[in-house]
Each structure stands twice: as structure tokens, then as C-alpha cells.
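Action item from last week, closing it out:
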Amino acid sequence: MRQLPVRRDHELHAMRAAGRVVAEMHQVIRELARPGTTTLELDAAAREVLARRGATSNFLGYHGYPAVICASVNDELIHGIPNDRPLADGDLLSIDCGAIVDGWHGDAAFTMPVGTANADDTRLVHAAEQALMAGMSAMHPGAHVGDIGAAIHAVVAAAGYGSPHDYCGHGIGRAMHEEPDVPNRGRRGKGPRLVAGSVLALEPMLIAGGHDDVEELDDGWTVVSADGSRCAHVEHTVLVTNRGPEILTRL
């Protein structure tokens, strides 16, 4: 069974630093995301954090991507491009962004209501966060990548939500996307084995309507739910340790 790379102490030092930058980007965006704000303004604020911390973006220019954040609203699941449309009260906003410090990457996402939250959105976001926690709880030495997907999918399915088949989490280190893929559904005991020092980015993606189908818009990036229902996307970069999982993308 294939084993994942083991990150050494100096590598983890840089990844923790990158993760803190990502967490600060999230914090700043959460404070600014209110009715009337545009996602272009949120992107500008994220750029300011990167510049202040001496970090660079792993999103900007990635396969031609034009921004440092992905800003997905309502039925947009992932990869939404920031624009000049003001956010409205009651919108559901997902932000995905990353940072590079000394050549090492961090990557994380969150979903939040803009202004007034409704009960359905609150339940959707809570389920996404619970799915992420379940996936992280499966990350211990000797476990398998399939255990993570099985844990995530159990929460999503029990809550009655959909999740796309073709988008998933990933390994992370010197590149933002490394092997292995970390699907949001899986079979326990299958896939590469985790060891202390493994680092993965877990990212549950939930579709409120209960269907799994998605579509990519003509911009070549934005992925939306095929049924028009709202979506949530959450993510952390997580280290496997002998003491339990360590979230690297938090302050």
C-alpha cells in the first residue's frame, strides 16, 4: 500500500506560516463580507493580507485563474471569480484561498451567510463543517484515505445533501495540489495509508437539493449546482500526528 510523504519539521514550520496567512485572509474577509460589499473588494483585501505577510498567492495565475480568492455565491459551489456585483442580504458566500510561504502551501475555504442567515443555510453550513470535522477525525496514523471520504460522506448523506463526484480534496506541500486525491466519499480501509507527518487538504462540498450533479459555467471556472440549489464548501489543510489531527490553516 502506497504511503504518503512525511513532512519534516522545517517544512511544517513553513506550512504552518502559510496556513496562518490563509486564516488571516479568512478572518479579514469574514469581517468585510456584508450586504453591499463586492467580491472584488474581498479579493483586494485578501491581496493586502498576502502583501503584509510577505506571502504569495497559489490561486492567482493557477491555470490562468485571475484572482487570489474564489468567491462563490448561492448556487455556485466552487471556483467563482470575484466580480463587481454587490453582495445582497441573505446571500450564501463561499470563499476559498491559499498562500505560499518559503515555497510551501496552505489552502482553506469557508462558507458564511451575508447579513441575515436563514435556517436552511445555517443547517447546510453546519453539516459541511460537521463533515469536515468527521473527515479530520479519521486522520490518524495507520488510517487510509478511504476512511476520510467514508467519514465525510456519512455526514453528508445522513443530512440529506448532495456532493459532487468529480471534485475533491488533495495532498498539499510544495504544490497546492499534490497526490493523493482525497474524495468526499470512499471505502474504509482503501487508498494510501496515513502516517504521522502526512498533510492533506480536506474539502467537503455540499449541495442543498440532495443531488450530486454540477455544471461549469462559460467562464471556464465557476461550478454551480445543476438544480440551482445552494451550496457550501469548507476546507482545512490538516497534519496527521500521533496526538490527533492538527489544523494548519488557523490562527
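Closing note: The radius of gyration is 17 Å.
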